Amino acid sequence: MQGFLSNGVFLTGSLSPTMPGKNTVQLVLSPVMSGASRPAAITLTAAMLGMHMIPTRAVLTRTVRGYAGTITLPMFGAYRMRVEMQTPAGMQRGIIIIKLPLPRW
After folding, report:
1. Residues 30, 11: contact at Cβ < 8 Å?
2. What is the pLDDT of the chain when averaged over all its residues?
3. C-alpha dihedral (84, 71, 26, 102), degrees to nearest 10
4. Are 44 and 37 in contact (CB under 8 A)?
5. b/e sequence 35-54, b meaning 16+ C-beta within 10 Å
6. Per-residue pLDDT for the chain (105 aa), expressed as one digit of tens each?
7. Which helix (H) or strand (E) holds 21?
């Protein structure tokens, strides 16, 4: 997973296990924000592309290296994930597209 936020901050991360259900999300911001400028949390809202499903939401909390949390994704497919974080400069937003591919048995 990777993308840019509205303030030019680049984020990169991982989603695991990329299966329907509960998934662990880890994100790292670059450049690294520190002190008071580092948000306490990042909010993710995932909506499945092309489906009329209720979006799922997660709040990632600070870790030593970035942010981590879990999000429940109900089925295989592509999701539009809105990323939001409140900083002293205001609310910063971005969009990431993620996919839960069908497994190859």
Report:
1. yes
2. 89
3. -120
4. no
5. eeeebeebbbebebeeeeee
6. 888 888 888 899 999 999 999 999 999 988 776 666 788 899 999 999 888 889 999 999 999 889 999 999 999 999 999 999 988 888 889 999 999 988 887
7. strand 21-30
